[in-house]
């Protein structure tokens, strides 16, 4: 009797449960249908609700439809985790034979993974996309593969892949894809320091974008043209390009492009020694990057903010930003970022007087940059390797590092960036007691500092530490009893005061003048020889 009653209770509960689930499915289906009817003219805000109700109603076709739409909407609003949840659910519900829907879902999901810097997941979706793409869809997939190669530092692979993409885009008459392909090609060349090869590629992308009325690609082309101009020391042209790109991004509500451009403008302002304004732009960029979940973009903004703090002598703050940048680089597969992180840490260690650490970070940066074939970062890493060697009195090592950095700058045709390795060589030869070699370096350096010329402005804007250039040149000329020494010191002090005068905040201005060792040393040298009143300087106290 007990067994019978037990089975009867189980049957009753099972039947009741089945009736309840059936009733709940019906209610969820009715709820979804009611939403569709009531909000037929404005369904997008209800895509997530509809996906939920049709999921609970166990109507997979409808759930898949709305899950895809909800995922796309969430991605557009930078709700990245929610976008991935809906897109992954839509993928689970899509039959393997439905290649078209799979392609649509994977394309959207790969874009989110790209923004997040989740390279492993992105690589997996690219592989899936390759197998489901049909016909002209292959153009888009090859372009995505080229962009991925560029992002992970495989620049030669990116160029090879994107050239195939250009051919496919022309075959299928896809001007949008062709424009984006030239854009990717240009970025891969720019990353390798091939600036004069990158310029016409970006110009071709811009031309195609305008012909095909592609405002997003037009903005991207302008911004990347700005990057090339910046690399070549054409600061006015770079700023003009960025200022054209920024309103276009804002009109499109494209936060990723807007934030990148804000940080690009900040970098120009840093080079122009307008640090306070640069900080405002980079802080805005970082805020946007964090809002949209762009971790690689956030790393770049942290790096720029670290450099600004470094220029003010705020080394603890600089370290916070540099460490935040390094943490983000480690979270994602970002070889170019890891390379830049090591340069930043080398710069910081050098300013802190920890030359052994500066040397180690510089060597790591150099190894990474050589693996990426990034000549620009190689030259920068070699500069700080030279500084570290000089600080450790390894004069042979300093000469070797500075000489290679100088050769790379000249090979890249970055004449505005030769002053720092030249000054480093001059200082090294002076320490060695080889005044003839020191004089030779100074004579090569002085034309870069000759008066208020365009070349001088470009040199001072491009240099990481222009005050150190003036200080070194003065000390070498003074040691040589060269009559030009005092005039060069006057120029350097005037430049330092001009930079300080652009800082409206009195405390920040004081930190800029007193906390930065080269600034303090140059001011002390100037005060020592200016007691006679031979030179007069303006500036805020």
Distinctive features:
disordered C terminus, disordered N terminus, 541 residues, mainly alpha
Rounded radius of gyration (Å): 29 Å
Fraction in beta strands: under 5%
Count of alpha and pi helical runs: 27
Distance between the first and last residues' Cα: 101 Å
Order of helices and strands: HHHHHHHHHHHHHHHHHHHHHHHHHHH
Mean pLDDT: 91
* Oligomeric status: single chain
Shape: elongated
Sheet with most strands: none
Structural class: mainly alpha
Give the strand tally.
Answer: 0
How would you characterize the overall build of this protein?
- With 541 residues, the protein is an all-alpha fold.
- The chain is 81% helix and 0% strand.
- It contains 27 helices and no strands.
- Helix 7 runs antiparallel to helix 8 and helix 13 packs parallel to helix 15.
- It is elongated.
- The N terminus and C terminus are likely disordered.
Secondary-structure map with pairings?
Layout: H1 2-38, H2 47-56, H3 60-76, H4 80-93, H5 99-116, H6 119-132, H7 137-151, H8 155-171, H9 175-191, H10 195-211, H11 215-231, H12 235-252, H13 255-271, H14 275-292, H15 295-311, H16 315-331, H17 335-352, H18 355-372, H19 375-391, H20 395-411, H21 419-432, H22 435-445, H23 454-462, H24 466-479, H25 485-501, H26 506-514, H27 517-530
